[in-house]
């Protein structure tokens, strides 16, 4: 699949925002700690991916009722769903000058019902012209997402026969539908009832 930058200016994928707040001390501290033992872009990106994937549980797996959406809050609370974890990883990438984008899939149950939008990350190493998608959701039985910039190893490969979709667009900021669902949910049970089913 050909990934499409929504913004042709690569600097848009290094910018900070309320959700991707890579200027925040919590993000900076985590970024500096990871960079100190991984002082090149590739190894830092891999370490940042594994840090978000493995040390921040997906709240559906952990049962945590809190809803975090700012990258700094995700890192501080060690909690978030796929979108929030994607915000955290993009912030960590951008904190070290690595362009990071948000991208999405539309997934469904095994019978094609209950569609839901799933959040991913794409990165582009400074020495590259190619974007690679990653899924920091968090592994569990049946889910084995890996850091691989050559061949995608996502948590959920799409099944077109069930109406699932890989959206090719690379967003510099969270999709408004996703951000609205996060910001307007007081807890995870309410968020589950308002998860976007399409972009």
Automatic annotation (TrEMBL):
Domain of life: Bacteria
Pfam families linked to this entry: Transglut_core
Segments forming domain Transglutaminase-like: 36-136
Record-linked InterPro entries: Papain-like_cys_pep_sf (IPR038765), Transglutaminase-like (IPR002931)
Protein name (record): Transglutaminase family protein
Organism: Streptomyces virginiae (Streptomyces cinnamonensis)
């Amino acid at each position: 699949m050909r990934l499409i930058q929504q913004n042709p200016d690569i600097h848009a994928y290094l910018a900070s925002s309320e959700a991707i707040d890579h200027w925040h001390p919590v993000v900076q501290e985590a970024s500096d700690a990871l960079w100190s033992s991984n002082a090149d872009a590739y190894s830092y990106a891999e370490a940042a991916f594994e840090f978000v994937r493995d040390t921040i549980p997906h709240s559906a797996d952990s049962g945590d009722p809190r809803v975090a959406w700012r990258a700094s809050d995700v890192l501080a609370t060690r909690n978030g769903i796929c979108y929030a974890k994607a915000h955290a990883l993009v912030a960590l990438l951008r904190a070290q000058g690595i362009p990071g984008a948000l991208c999405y899939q539309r997934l469904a149950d095994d019978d094609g019902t209950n569609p839901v939008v799933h959040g991913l990350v794409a990165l582009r190493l400074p020495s590259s012209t190619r974007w690679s998608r990653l899924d920091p959701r968090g592994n569990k039985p049946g889910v084995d997402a890996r850091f691989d910039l050559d061949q995608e190893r996502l948590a959920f490969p799409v099944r077109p026969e069930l109406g699932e979709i890989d959206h090719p667009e690379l967003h510099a900021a969270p999709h408004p539908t996703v951000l609205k669902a996060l910001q307007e949910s007081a807890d995870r049970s309410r968020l589950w009832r308002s998860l976007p089913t399409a972009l």
